[in-house]
Amino acid sequence: MNDLAGKHIVLGLSGGIACYKAAELCRALVKDGATVQVVMTEAAEQFTTAVTMQALSGRPVFTSQWDARTSGGVDNNMAHINLSREADAIVVAPASADFMARLVHGRADDLLSLMCLARPIDKVPLILAPAMNREMWAHPATQRNVKQLRADGTTVLDVGAGEQACGETGDGRMLEPEELIYDIARFFQPKPLAGQHVLVSAGPTFEAIDPVRGLTNLSSGKMGFAIARAAHEAGAQVTLVAGPVGLPTPRGVGRVNVKSAQNMQKSLDLLVPGATGVISAAAVADWRPALAVEHKIKKDGSGAVPTLSFVENPDILATIAASPRAKSGALYCVGFAAESHDLEEHAQAKRLRKGVPLLVGNIGPATFGQDDNALLLVDDQGMTELPRASKLVLARQLVAEIARRLPG
Ligand code: C5P
Question: 260 CB under 6 A from ligand 1?
Answer without folding.
Answer: no
